[in-house]
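Lecture notes, part 5. Sequence design as translation. It can be helpful to think of inverse folding as translation between two languages: the language of shapes and the language of residues. The source text, in structure tokens, appears below.
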């Protein structure tokens, strides 16, 4: 039921055209993908996480931006998980944009 709720919200946001726009780059490591994206408004950015396998993973990363900032994070990604996180510096229009992304841990649970 929880997954159905998230799928419904995601479809509604996609159809509205206001939340998602362009994902500019992505990085894959095995079944895990992290994408750098910008919103339609052109102000804010976000990252998208995907687990394209039937296993659960703990994923950690280190993002470095063109504006000198960095962001580290860790998430538990259930099987076939898709989700997003806010990332102002992910949008190149903010003086940011991802310079590099390093997966620091991918651990099957």
């Amino acid at each position: 039921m929880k997954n159905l709720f998230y799928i419904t919200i995601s479809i509604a946001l996609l159809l509205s055209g206001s939340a998602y726009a362009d994902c500019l780059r992505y990085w894959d490591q095995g079944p895990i993908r992290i994408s750098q994206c910008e919103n339609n408004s052109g102000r804010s950015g976000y990252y998208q996480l995907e687990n394209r396998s039937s296993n659960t993973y703990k994923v950690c990363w280190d993002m470095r931006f063109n504006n000198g900032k960095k962001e580290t994070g860790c998430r538990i990604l259930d099987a076939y998980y898709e989700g997003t996180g806010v990332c102002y510096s992910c949008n190149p229009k903010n003086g940011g944009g991802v310079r590099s992304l390093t997966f620091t841990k991918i651990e099957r649970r």
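The translated text above is only one of many valid answers, since several sequences can fold into similar shapes. DSSP finds one helix and seven strands in the chain.
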